[in-house]
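Record filed here:
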Amino acid sequence: MSPIPRRSLLKAAAVAGAAAQFSWALGAKDAQAAPRAEAADADPVTLDWLEDGGLGAAPGSTVGVPWPKGAYEADQTFALTDADGKAVPVQTWPLAFWPDGSLKWTAHAVSSGSGKLTLAAGDAAVPDKKVTVDKSGGTVDVSTGVITVKIGKDGSTLVKSVRRGSTEIARNGRLVLIRQPEIEDEDQGTVKTERFDGAIGEVTVEQDGPVRAVVRIDGKHRKGSRSWLPFSIRLYFYAGAHSFRMVHTITYDGTQEPGKASGDFIRGLGVRFSVPMRDEAYDRHIRIGGEGKGLLREAVKGITGLRRDPGAAVQAAQYAGQRLPEPSTWDQRVTTRLQYIPEWGDYTLAQLSADGFTLRKRTKKGYGWIGAGGGKRASGFGYVGGASGGFSFGLRDFWEKHPAQLDIRDAHTDEAEVTLWLWSPEAQPMDLRFYHDGMGQDTYAEQLEGLNITYEDYEPEFGTPYGIARTSELLFWANESTPSADALAQQVDAVRTLPQLVAPPRQLIRAKVFGPGLYSEPDRSTPAKAKIEDHLDFLFTYYKDQVEQRRWYGFWDYGDIMHTYDTVRHVWRYDIGGYAWDNSELSPDLWLWYAYLRSGRADIFRFAEAMTRHTGEVDVYHLGKWAGLGTRHGVQHYADSAKQQRIANTTYRRFYYFLTADERVGDLMHANVDSDETFLVLDPLRKVRTDPYTPDRHALSIGFGTDWSGLVSAWLTEWERKGPKWEKAKARVLSTMEGIAAQPNGFVQGSGLYDLDTGKFAVASTPVVSVSHLSAVFGLNELCAELMHLVDMPKFNDAYFDYCRYFNATKAEQKARYGSDFGTLLLFQGHSRLDAYAAVQTGDAALAKRAWTKFYGSDGYMESSPWKTEAVSGPMALVAGSEASWVSSNDTALYGLAAIENLALLGDKMP
């Protein structure tokens, strides 16, 4: 999706603000906008860097900042200053609006800064060196004031040239894909491969300065008449920077069938640039990142360690990457024999696992490789160039998303070539075939039996990777000469941890975003509060450690966690059906993001960031008949046949988008606006329905819990962003809220018949009691808290408060209210946060008391739980480490959210 032009946003906001004074034009009659707020507290906001070090060597950073309702009109401008009061250039644009048209979220891009920055209303400073974009010719030319990048509009060359001043530093930037048409499980057969090149389909300038410019390139990989593996590339440029960032997304649309050796197996996936080499071979330098800030620092023609010494100063200069004095000034015993010193043109660093990389080099093609070192985890950084200029490059999450690789080729010639392999061609081909043959599960009855033993919901041909995606991030620098060791170390840091400017928790809380009152800053003022904070810290630390111990890494896996632990084998149940990869089950994404919102902790942010990148891309389909649906937890991220809204839930993406203004996550959210159409394609209850049901466009069965929460989050986000379909989205938010409120039993009715064309639920003629323990645990409470803050609809509020009040009630209380009880339920601890929310909203003291009773004494984690780990080692486990066999990801997500929300809502009413 192209970003929405600022002019359109402001116009839409103005229309929204005017409409807010009356009733919603496209919604229900009694759905009124919440009253316009009085001018809210709009004090300056102090922004800080997530980690120490400021911007460092990164090209720039973009931060999202929320504002209280009514604080600023849509056309408000903002200024930024540093700790000394000096103006810092900033580019601002709106991300979201309150229903009254005032700003809810704004994005701010900076290209400088190392300490805290103050954001306030005012006129923005303009950078001395602006970003400019010229798309009038055959290329899109972007200038940062330091470098100029020419971007192709067609063909296979995405980046035609990167210049610094008059010097061309790199050129011919392109995408490379290696396909292996057949995969052999044994040692038979001949491996054949074919290369595809990225072919540009469309180029869009999304932003054009003055501080930040964004160019999007969409296309497919092509060879001959075949085009496949769609890509979406964004290039980010910042004022005054000599670097740029690439966000690289591929969507898998190949064929791999279980049991068959032929198919579209990816053998290599990379980004490649050519680098002109102008200097003498002894003034050409290679830098390859090893562990930490470690670097291989060599010259193409090394003059250190020789039998004859050219001089200590000459050797030191070459090691430092400085231009050497004329060879005539060296010891002539070296100068006269320079032609006999080998020139090393090719280097390869391969990181095939999270635990080891190898580095090798050779003089040139056709000659043998020699080992050049190795280690555990490489930084993913490299450099090739010389005294007259060179090109640095890096791949973020290099070892975490193995198998990855860096290649430098032909550095001894006039043009070197660098390739950043997102999937190393030296690894096994990317095998995405489903992992078993079905074991005779041909009917729904047999599949339900399988579910009862492995917890896997299998169905033939449903375990397909067709349509899943993955996003990678890369950085590039155009250096005027070989950087110093300190400068290289800064570049390595930027690759490993991309600097991020952030707003403080108090601003998020004050602005009442992501559910007013649902989170507050950590408070250890009483023993009871301190104990819960300790438990929250324990759980996060445990999962962070388990990622490392269990090696939850890899191109498709990094960012996810496992679902359930096997206490007998002392491993997570990685190979057992629905107990393996978690795929957002019961909302660990929400737990992590709310943990970050209240604390501002960098380690939690980075964990949540990786999960958002994973769950939004890999666990969701972006192409094909199931586009807009996600896959339930399983052995492979796409294996389970339950393709549902609850996993594609936009709620899980909103945090990262609004905190960082990330365009790719914005694409994912916008793509879900029409995902109600998926209910025509696939009935999520097809295996368990007892009554006949055929999907009907005007009467689709949609649940008010996991289904509606996924749909309404996408609609709400589109409405707030004033996206291309915001009017339709707003209408659906309001009409479905009204439809649920009008049901005989409100949310307890369970589901309704939805009309795709009108966006409304039919009102049932008879009351039904249909309550699931899953309905509210995929973000429903958090979404309803947001919706009730935005929309004045008392009947909806009452319907939701009733649901909150009676889920954790006794069966007798349920029966007295609804005529029958809710049956056998569970997850009471997780639902205590519904008690807490309704208690505060309605002033119900008994409900407040019950919230803590259910939190402390129902199911989930108890105060009597061990709250510690036990050591495991061989021969009991594969690797030494720790385990907490009593921990499960379901309980962790529910405890985490209940603890955070209960403390915020009822921290002053703890027993």
About this structure: The longest helix spans residues 527-549.
